[in-house]
Amino acid sequence: MLFGLSCGAIAILMLLGVLLDMRLGEATRWHPLVGFGNLAIRMEKKLNTGGSRIALGAWAWILVVTPFVVIAWLLTFWLAQFDALFALGVHALLLYFSLGLRSLRDHTLPIAHALMDGDLAQARLLTARIVSRDTTQAQEAELAKAGVESLLENGNDAVFSTLFWFALGGGPGVVLFRLANTLDAMWGYRTQRYNEFGRVAARIDDVLNFIPARLTALSYAVLGNTKQAWQCWRAQAPAWSSPNAGPVMSAGAGALGISLGGAAIYDGELEQRPPLGTGPLATGKDIARAWRLVRLTTVLWLLLICIAGVFYA
Predict the structure, then answer these.
(1) Distance from first CA to last CA of the chain, Å, rounded?
(2) Residue 282: Cβ-neighbour burial (10 angstroms; 0-12, 13-18, 19+)
(3) Where do transmembrane segments lie in this chain (predicted)?
(4) What is the pTM of this model?
């Protein structure tokens, strides 16, 4: 039993959560993560004002994350005492609100279609919505590279790490991970404002992502060019500053047989990033291939958890 859930129940709820996400997509109104993000913004403005910014950032993390995790645990635990079926439904809803599989598809495949149609202006506009790099003068290879990198990296953050923590901790586990990951995305920058304040948020996200990121990289390798993915993972991942993005994107690029990484413009400055993968530069078609890899990895994870559920039942 995991937090009151059997392995079989976890398998069924994971499948239900993914199906809800693919059928409904992100909630367009009253999404819990939007409300959480607004709270995090207010907390950061209030506490990131001087003094020991690392300690203040840690205190801010505790203040904004802990209450929601405790509420999720108390709610699911309390409901399980009175109506087990309703409690299971809450677990599934918490997973649904935390997943981003359909969002990945809906934000990246239009870029692929625009590039394949030769509509560079539309591709630039769509890519700018999902990445922080400058796309105003980007050509097809740069836009395709950005789309593939976003799919591979966010496939881990928005899908596979989310499923991993749901498997370990049910609804409360997935709430803990998704909120921690959101704070890393908001505060985990090496800028003058966030370098110290967001350091704890970044390190917590690194820890929570450490195992699932490597499982994701392994899954990409198994479902693509395995030998090439493994070679790129070993050779290229250590060069990346992120301990988790490196394995995920290098293995994914190697599995797809394309070259990613390299130069990109951020805030008007050219940044030379370490190479990822090997082979030709990415094209619009490779975004669709990357989406298929993420989709197949999702199917693989669901299949494995269902097999485990049947076995332990």
Answers:
(1) 11
(2) buried
(3) 51-75, 82-99, 158-180, 293-312
(4) 0.94
